[in-house]
Amino acid sequence: MPVLFSLLLAWLFMVPITSLSVSQPEHSDIAVSPVNTLNVFHSSPPSDTLSPDNFRWVERWAAIGDSFTAGIGSGQLYSKSDGDTRCSRYDRSYPALIERRLGPSVKVFEYLACSGARTGGIFQQALSLRQDLDLVVLSAGGNDLCLSSILTTCIFLPFQGEKACQDILDKAQENIDTILKQNLRQVLSALNSKVKKNGIIVFALYAQYFNTQNNECADKQDWSFPQGLPFSGLKLTIERRQKFNNLVANINKAIKEVIHEYQHDPWIKYRITYADWEVWAREAVKGQFCVPGTTRAYPDDWQPDLHFFRPSLRSRGSDHDELKKKGLIYHKKVNETEIQEDELAIYNTFLYKSANPAADALKALEPRTPTPPGCPGDDKASFGIGLPDRWGKLFHPNELGHRTMASFVMEAIIAVRSGILGIEHPICKQIDQFNCNSPWVTDHRYLSTDVLTETVKTYCKEVVPREGQKWADERLFYKGTPEAHTYRIEARAGVSEYSEQQCLLAFNRIIHGCNRITKNPMNFKLGGSYYFGSFRYILRPVGKQRPWPVIEKPYGKCEGNDEGSMSTYTLYGAGWASSDRGRKFYKAMSDCIGWTVNSYSFKYFDRPDKDGYEWKMIVHWPDHVKKCFRNDKVQKEAGGTTGGCLGTD
């Protein structure tokens, strides 16, 4: 699947939709999307009816499948209807994003995808669709692999040990080998009577969850959930992560093989393809779990491209010790077996039971429906116990993941449509594409031009090209500061030789050619991307959040307290000292008093404080040189001002 055109389409899904507000549902952990209960703003399609990216031909379409198509947790609840609530359909799912870009020609959209649905339920979704559909998008098969049972047994509640985890992994592979393909054939055959001749079906594949570069994830992170349990889960070793990834690769392989069959079956009247978006999360960006250098927090400032929901993690073993210290674990006899069974019953019921179990039980008795997967726990009659979507969404694509899925699905539609029309696919046209980030994309992060002017020289000089047709290079500057940013170069297939001069030319165009901030006297930058020749150049702010609207001039305050022969000064600032962690202050203070300053601390805030300051510094200072702060001398040499210093000094 071509990545370039999908990236270009991704920008279509970065524009916020404007709409009126509506009342919210009674559920405490979800909100209703206003865009799907009222008129939706549609961008008009091109006027050229023969263009592959003109979607006027789509008048009736549908989205069926499991939670990957329902979009559990991605945005707000799609509407207040019982079906959307029961199936956890959300308004930032990839079908919802596509809905807003198809244009005003759409007369019917059937959104039947349901979180928890296996191929048996998806088969019934297909049968219930109206006829003469122009387009269908779907995902299916993941729940036939007992995915939720894998999550509970191997990751979140792994109290049954290594063997239980391996047994469920073996069961998943057995289902791939024995029942998956036939189940998928049943679904695709059912669609043959629902889709028009030369209508299009796009099957969204699954994505591998885990990076497997090193063992940081196993040694430093505990993934058991909920937090605070008095035991740790199985370690996510490289071997175990690779097993999970292999299952995803194998289910995708099976799906592709079935699609290939149907592409060449003369009885099938529709056109079918797949959207293989996982390559983007795995290779183009740092979109997987366990990427080296990322933190335990979610969201993670050091991994803005994570494509899946996960909980914030604890360091292995630490939380239980802290709970004991605080007396929050009560020491009394309990039946550990009963605790484990109760916890597992809750998770099993929610995570791998259909949202409509009674109906699915009846459907399972029909001989024509796909074969049930036989996952552990299927024989338990513990229906009706549910957990909030804020937990059920874990290990599902987040909003960014669905934006990527939407981009790849749209690219797949355009590719098939190009073949139907006998027109060259737009991806075949070589173009140089220049994109500037918007404030919405950077989430109130921006960069100083002076800082970028220096770091770009260092980066381009020290890039290490890789051998082979495709490679990428990325480097982070000023980690942990408001000025933190990454430079990244991605080489396309069949690349030309790396050029430092071209690197400087491309990044300088991004730095000096992008200006998406309306009132910006300090000339801050938001970064962007540039497809230039055989390379893609990306500049991205990834640091601490900064004041918004943007800082128009450096500002700060200083408070001094007399402590006899010493004084303590507390300084706050924004728009200056934003990258050096107080080093200019250190030099200015030492120069002012004539000797080295030994006692000071400097800290950047994760986001601006209530007064809009980005950092705080505390200095213990000899009383006889207090003028250095009072007359603003030190502050000015550090790049800003506090207008002197107030207080009791």
From TrEMBL:
Residues 63-270 form the SGNH hydrolase-type esterase domain. It comes from the Eukaryota. CDD domains: SEST_like. It holds the Pfam family Lipase_GDSL_2. The keyword Electron transport does not apply. Residues 1-19 form the signal peptide. GO terms for molecular function: hydrolase activity, acting on ester bonds. Keywords: Signal. The keyword Signal applies. One of its GO terms (biological process) is lipid metabolic process. This is SGNH hydrolase-type esterase domain-containing protein. The lineage of its organism: Eukaryota, Fungi, Dikarya, Ascomycota, Pezizomycotina.
